[in-house]
Write a structure and sequence with these properties.
The protein is an alpha/beta fold. Helices cover 42% and strands 19% of the residues. It has a seven-stranded parallel β-sheet, with helices on both faces. Strands 5-4-3-6 form a four-stranded parallel β-sheet, with helices on both faces. Helix 3 runs antiparallel to helix 4, helix 3 packs antiparallel against helix 7 and helix 10 packs parallel to helix 11.
Length: 414
């Protein structure tokens, strides 16, 4: 297994060293060609995905995991559209981030450059294979993709499209490589190869990310749990509060920007109606004592529930005495992913935005908008819950670092 990891890592490093010499046009062409191939081979991709879905169902994966895994012709088309959006984004490589001429005549330029080799680990969602490949091509990086074994047939079919697109556009061999072996132990081999791999981005469950952080010898940029909150402030418009809370908690529960907790100000006047609307929308409420007095069908919320990413219609609901109590709850129990406030009081909104320590803070809109596509990034390789070097939805520009270029005309330092 070590030989296999070494081979892929060295091939990726060789590609990464050639990519800075490749202009923007071939990379754009590769991404556009990928979108075309996804459409042309949609039937083949969906058929491959059916093998994965059947196996996942037989192996007892949760409904949420199966939903993440499943591809339909419509979802393949959305995948192609996301790739096209990435192709249309401006090239983040070679931008001058800062420039000046020093008093001694030296010209300084801070220029954006690719990270180099990205090792990307992810689970379940095969559309991520296309998104990650396109984003790394757009940003001039070589990438090693390691999807979950539950999606191996889907990922292989999509990776074939990626490889053909790169070859057709004249990109270096091995710009994008899929790890075709599903041995879990193989990941540890890649995580030791800091000479070839510049950064690892894990996107998946808590246990996966904790294992990567423990074993990696290169920097790790984490996409952690999506334990997201919606806080209904005392001044919230009832219709807005009902719509946002229902959308955030029930619209698509299998994704990381779905809300797990709804907090309600103790003096919010339309609390009874809000709770009934949420129950009618299908939410399985786990509530505190006051919630259960309004919704007798609700079960008792536990301390663990406040810390849990359910990925289901289950939701923890409770009352708080103040805005500051809501902020304290979010900072104590949240995962620093996405949290929302619904309020008519902009001073309260500002306090929430400034005090909540999350990558995405939403004011009077659903947590479901926390997404690279919705942010205009084309797509995302993940939503970073770290603070360095990127935070929130990561597009192509977040897969770049920079170098200083200093140009003189013979200066020497005395």
């Amino acid at each position: 297994m070590t030989d296999y990891a070494e081979q892929l890592a060295r091939q990726a490093r060789a590609a990464a060293l050639k990519l800075p010499l490749i202009g923007s046009s071939p990379r754009t062409a590769a991404i556009s060609r990928l979108a075309d191939l996804l459409r042309e081979r949609a039937t083949k991709i969906v058929a491959a995905n059916a093998h994965d879905v059947d196996a996942a169902t037989s192996n007892g994966l949760t409904d949420a995991m199966v939903d993440r895994l499943r591809l339909t012709p419509g979802r393949v088309e959305k995948m192609a559209l996301a790739v096209e959006n990435i192709a249309r984004k401006s090239d983040p490589v070679g931008r001058t981030l800062h420039g000046e001429v020093r008093p001694n005549g030296l010209r300084l330029e801070k220029r954006s450059v690719p990270l180099g080799v990205v090792f990307f680990i992810y689970e379940s969602r095969p559309n991520v294979t296309a998104d990650a490949a396109a984003l790394c091509i757009r940003s001039g990086n070589a990438v090693i993709l390691r999807g979950g074994k539950e999606a191996i047939h889907s990922n292989t079919a999509i990776a074939e499209c990626v490889g053909d697109a790169c070859r057709d556009a004249g990109l270096p061999p091995h710009t994008v490589q899929l790890v075709e072996r599903t041995d879990r132990e193989l990941v540890a081999d890649f995580l030791q190869r800091s000479d070839e791999i510049d950064i690892v981005i894990p996107r998946g469950g808590k246990s996966l990310i904790e294992a990567v952080v423990r074993d990696a010898r290169m920097p790790v940029l984490k996409h952690f749990d999506g334990n997201c909150h919606v806080y209904i402030d005392v001044s919230a418009d009832p219709a807005m509060a009902e719509a946002i809370a229902a959308n955030a908690t029930t619209q698509r529960v299998s994704v990381c920007n779905s809300a797990e907790t709804v907090l309600i100000h103790a003096d919010y006047p339309a609390a009874d109606e809000l709770l009934r609307k949420l129950a009618d929308a299908g939410m399985k409420v786990r509530g505190d004592e006051r919630v259960r007095s309004i919704l007798p069908e609700a079960t008792a919320v536990t301390d663990d529930d406040w810390n849990t990413e359910f990925l289901s219609l289950d939701c923890a609901v409770g009352f708080v005495d103040s805005l500051d109590a809501a902020i304290s709850h979010v900072n104590r129990h949240g995962s620093r992913h996405t949290d929302a406030i619904v309020t008519a009081d902009m001073a309260a909104a500002d306090r929430f935005v400034n005090a909540v320590d999350s990558a995405n803070v939403m004011v009077n809109c659903s947590t479901r908008f926390s997404d690279g596509g919705e942010y205009g990034l084309g797509a995302e390789i993940g939503i970073s819950t770290d603070k360095l070097h990127a935070r929130g939805p990561m597009g192509a520009s977040d897969l770049c670092t920079y170098k200083w270029v200093v140009t003189g005309h013979g200066q020497v330092r005395s």
